[in-house]
Amino acid sequence: MRLALISDIHGNCFAFDSVLRDIRQQGIEQIVCLGDAIQGGAQPAETLQRLRELNCPVVMGNADAFVLYNDLEEPPSARQLAVRDWTLAQLSSADKSFMEQFQPTIEVKLEGGKSLLCFHGSPHSFNDIILPQTPDEVVKRYLGGFAATFLTGGHTHTQQMRRLSANVSWYFNPGSVSLAYNWGRAPDGTKVDPWSDYAILTSEGDATGITFRHVPFDVAELARVIRSSGLPDAETSIEMYQA
Fold first, then answer.
1. Is the pLDDT of residue 143 over 90?
2. Residues in contact with 32: Cβ distance below 8 Å, sequence separation at least 6, in sequence order
3. 154-168 pLDDT, tens digit each
């Protein structure tokens, strides 16, 4: 089987469509979304419609909970609240009901008796942060004690992979469909690369593999989409993609 892991679309259906075209070209059999589907972007309803069409499992992310329940770990900024209000105005009651079905974790059975555990931040909380430089003892606290062969989460918008134990257990992050953070350009995550990130897990008998994909998109066209959407403070969103 070949499984695509996508995450952190953040309402950017324009970039999401680019990823879906690439996924189709790769002959992928199944997709799992690791959360943060709509908040922040110019196309929240369109993004949810794509997820419905895919009929794929979706994890509940921190930004999803913020949209539904105004639940955020830190007090939201005025801009975050304005974007949330605008986002909710774009959604139907069916959209909100669909989001309420997002799950904290999703487990996928792989070939060879292996399994994949999917979440947003960690299996314990969608707010937990795992970066390449996160100390091993912190990662062990977040991810230790689970029997899955592979554990995968989003949240940090950063493609990464690390071995968790001598028993061949691995963690990976597929990156973000919408906002592939470029920490070299902006350590605070306010600059992003002009492409979408996702990952493919291949499971064939006892053999498994992880492939990271980068799918470029047209930043000028994305800017046009954002400006025409009515998204509050649209220029701030556009500036993230510009050098």
1. yes
2. 3, 4, 5, 6, 56, 57, 58, 59, 106, 108, 118
3. 999 999 999 997 667
